[in-house]
């Protein structure tokens, strides 16, 4: 894996966005998938979580997409709203310099809000199968415009019972020229479904979980001693970042509260929480504002968290696939990772099922100690204080891009062309300096590229737009 992104046949805008994320060298899945995808080939790809497959398929899609497209030409299906949102975010980040953007659609969000978002210029839809099918059937998503279909996490979509919805969507998309499918593993079941979605495809296999740099430790523990054992592990190891997986939302609430009662900084995320609560918790955890996250398997797939030190299964996973998916939260981008699993007496049957699934036998470690000394606790308190004092600054991506907010939108009859026309009249602003313009009902947003944000801010503040004086400021979001 030594191919540099600069060796790829991609435009300077995409390359600049990739470099802004700190990536220089391609992973194996990126090396194998991107050239084939650029040729327009159908692909069934297998690669472990954390190996960079999202970037592998987004680069070719963005490369062959133009800002002139009014509606989505790419549809990306994902098994969870979290993954759909993450893919949308990565699409927007990589497409920023080409003025390309995506819309995310998923359940438990107002349908009308998604329709409004889709009325703005966009080039991709990232969504869960049920909601995407709903949009197709209501006529709010144009199937004739979709040229590229991506099915991410095929195995997970099947496990969650989405096969019928996915196949129904495929039948609606008559204009698709390319289908890209990805799965953690390629089973006969996955191949059968892939064959139903594409007449022919290239199979591309890259890194497996065993090849990634992740250590596995399985510790026997009595049910009644699990929390004491966890505290001992935290006080002794002092992990700077850790996900603690549990099997139910009630256990998630309980464990998060028990840790909070011990004054250990912790967040939680499970399916019973409101969408905004989950997204805020995940964002705070990704930004390393809080070191520990208690989660159900809703967070086990598709959430990209860099530098996660430990993935700890406080509850041994019920589904054998979750063993691998939880493990894949750590050791991302080929950094060292550690996956720890607590195993009670009643977990041995499930452990045997997982052994059959992964193809090797586990070795149980010696039990962890449960008692901790006052010195160990005091040492941990100092460690946590240091973490709080040295929370990293949020990484700024695209530092040469400024997003401006204008307090006028569709209600004031403002159109994207009105904003672009006013910007063109500002001395020092060239057409290529104007990025994505998003006009909402009550306000508008515009990206100003190439470090010319202050010039645009001053110029717009001194001018009327369509005869109206609007307040212009740097966007808060």
How would you describe this protein?
By secondary structure, the protein is of the alpha/beta class. It folds into 3 domains: about 5-205, Rossmann fold (3-Layer(aba) Sandwich); about 210-390, P-loop containing nucleotide triphosphate hydrolases (Rossmann fold), CATH 3.40.50.300; about 400-475, Alpha-Beta Plaits, CATH 3.30.70.330. The chain has 17 helices and 17 strands. The protein has helices spanning about 10-20, 30-40, 55-65, 80-95, 110-120, 130-140, 155-160, 165-170, 190-195, 225-235, 250-260, 275-285, 320-325, 350-360, 375-390, 415-425, 455-460; strands at about 45, 75, 100-105, 125, 150, 180-185, 200-205, 215-220, 240-245, 265-270, 290-295, 310-315, 335-345, 400-405, 435-440, 445-450, 470-475. Helix 2 runs parallel beside helix 3, helix 6 (about 130-140) runs parallel beside helix 8 (about 165-170) and helix 13 (about 320-325) crosses helix 14 (about 350-360). The longest helix has 16 residues, at about 375-390. The two termini are about 35 Å apart. About 40% of the residues are buried. The model has no long low-confidence stretch (mean pLDDT about 90).
